[in-house]
Amino acid sequence: MKKVLSLLAITTFALAHQAIAQESSPTTVKIETGTQAGKVLTEKGRVFVNQSGTVVHGFFKAGDKMKRHNHDGYELFFTVLKGKANIVLDDKETHPINAGEILYFNGKHFINADFPEETEVLISLIKE
């Protein structure tokens, strides 16, 4: 678990300095820090996009579902910050993920999910 958390931290840091192509939009989301070295991000949705990856801050209500889809060409880190997610990969592999846990998988696999309670997630997509 420590290795995964360290990799996630390194990956998130690398995203701030490199690039990720967005499948649906080539738009780059620039993070302006002004005169400060850092910035607290509180936005929902895509909070960072460049040529190397995308970071998504997602919020789900109890009972919400995520439709089946994939992210071919990316490695994913699906982190539950608050709540719980029941993730299914390739329609057969089930992963109940609780707050503080991270599911890693290759984006070639199809994902769908349901959220039995109010849930906050951070999803990092890293270009292969």
UniProtKB/TrEMBL annotation:
Record key words, sorted: Dioxygenase, Oxidoreductase, Signal
Residues in Cupin type-2 domain copies: 60-107
Keyword Signal in record: yes
Signal peptide: 1-21
One GO MF term: dioxygenase activity
The keyword Calcium is assigned to this record: no
Protein's recorded name: Quercetin dioxygenase-like cupin family protein
Source species of the chain: Lonepinella koalarum
